Every structure is written in C-alpha cells, then in structure tokens.
Write a sequence for this structure.
C-alpha cells in the first residue's frame, strides 16, 4: 500500500449521474480508438470532425470532473482534468492536424504512430478508471463497450448517447446536448422532467433545458487525499504514456485517526 497504509481496497460507488458519465466516457474512448487505429492503418480517413469530437470528449471529462466535488476530483483529477486525457487528446489532435495538412514520409509515419498511441491511451485510461468504480445497483463497467447501453454489466443502467457534443448535459452526466430531464444524484434514480427552466430571469420557451440536479456527492466511500495516481501527466509530444492498471488507482480504507490527520 502507498505510504505504508494498510486496509482493504475500496472502489468508488457511483450514483446515477456518475454511472451515465463513465458509460459514455468508456464507450466513446473505444470508438475514438477504433477511428484512430483505422486512420493509422489506412482504412479510414482523417477528418476535421474527428478533431472536434476528440476536443469535445476531452472537455466533457474535464468539465464533468469539475462539477462532482472534492472527493471525486481528488480521485480522478489526474485522469480527467490535467493528466492522461489531456495528453492523449493533444497528441491525437496534433497528429490528425498533420495528416490533414498533408504530412508525408517520416512526418506521416510519426503522425500514424502518435494516433495509435493516443487511441490506446484513451481506451486504457477509460477502462482503468471505470474499473475502479461500481455502477448503480452494484454493476460493473464493460471495458470493451462501444455504446452507452452496453457499458454496464447490466445493460441499460446508464443513460445518454455518444459522441459527446460541445454542449453536454453535465447535470445528468450525459454527452448529448442538454434538453430534458431531472436527475437526483443522491438517490440514484432519474425522473423524466417537464415544465420550464428559467435562465437569467427569462423562461426558455416552455421546455426544460437540462433539468435540476441534487448534488448528493456523499457516496459513503472512504477516500482520502493520500490517494496517488500513477498516470503520468505527459506532454503531447510523448503520447505513448504508460497507463497504470486498475489496481494502481484503488483506494485504501484507513482508520478515522489517519483520516483526521490527512484532512487537518
């Protein structure tokens, strides 16, 4: 155990919103990986649309992380905010831009190698992180999934669609543009929403534009600030970063005395 701590390994218990997020994050990582590998081996074409998709995906991870509170952020910042996701996204976008600008010879070969490394990084990161989480109902996440519905061991637990849009519904943890729905994150259930949403003192035309969220982040997990991520925050120029196994992200449960010392 890191730091000489002892205890049992505890996975992070997700609520409905977090289950939605991880299912989308995992499924889209695998689809992006397939596109990047296809471009590198010549069976698919690089497109500006794929560049945008990757940028939206990276922002979805970072922005969702920022909405989930200190415990979630302490556990997953390195993957979602300023670590592997950011590095792989930058590397993939750089390589795709080079291909779109007609790189040839050694430059093209370097672009293709970067695409393969970044694609593997997306998939490994998503599988690694979601493997340290428990979906609602005690379900696990399916590391090879390419759809939201099949990303949990009990299919259909997660809601939402991929690819992630530029304006995802962060309140519900879903990648599609926010339209309707009200999610209670504390109780782990989702209720279809209706009514109206008022923004800036005006009503948005009789439709719900994202619903409301009860941010019950108290999932009962014993997570501490002593958790250490082993993913490297590599620069975009070095996309072939090593992605740690799920065990590297597992959190030890420590006694209350240690908890008090950490949080003083």
């Amino acid at each position: 155990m890191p730091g000489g701590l002892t205890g049992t390994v505890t996975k992070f218990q997700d609520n409905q919103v977090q289950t939605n997020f991880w299912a989308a994050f995992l499924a889209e990582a695998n689809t992006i990986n397939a596109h990047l590998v296809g471009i590198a081996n010549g069976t698919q074409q690089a497109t500006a649309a794929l560049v945008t998709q990757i940028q939206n995906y990276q922002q979805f991870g970072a922005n969702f992380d920022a909405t989930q509170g200190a415990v979630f952020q302490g556990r997953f910042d390195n993957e979602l905010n300023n670590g592997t996701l950011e590095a792989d996204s930058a590397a993939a976008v750089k390589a795709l831009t080079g291909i779109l600008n007609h790189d040839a010879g050694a430059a093209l070969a370097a672009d293709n190698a970067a695409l393969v490394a970044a694609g593997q990084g997306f998939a490994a990161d998503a599988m690694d992180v979601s493997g340290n989480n428990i979906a609602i109902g005690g379900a696990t996440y399916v590391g090879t999934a390419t759809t939201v519905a099949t990303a949990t061991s009990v299919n259909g637990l997660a809601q939402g669609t991929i690819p992630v849009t530029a304006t995802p519904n962060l309140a519900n943890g879903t990648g599609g543009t926010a339209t309707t729905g009200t999610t209670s994150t504390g109780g782990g259930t989702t209720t279809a929403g209706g009514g109206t949403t008022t923004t800036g003192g005006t009503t948005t035309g009789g439709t719900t534009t994202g619903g409301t969220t009860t941010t019950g982040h108290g999932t009962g997990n014993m997570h501490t600030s002593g958790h250490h991520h082993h993913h490297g925050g590599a620069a975009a120029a070095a996309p072939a970063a090593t992605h740690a196994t799920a065990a590297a992200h597992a959190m030890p449960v420590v006694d209350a005395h240690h908890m008090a010392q950490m949080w003083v």
User: Anything to note?
Assistant: The first helix runs from residue 16 to 40. Residues 20 and 158 are 5 Å apart (CA to CA).
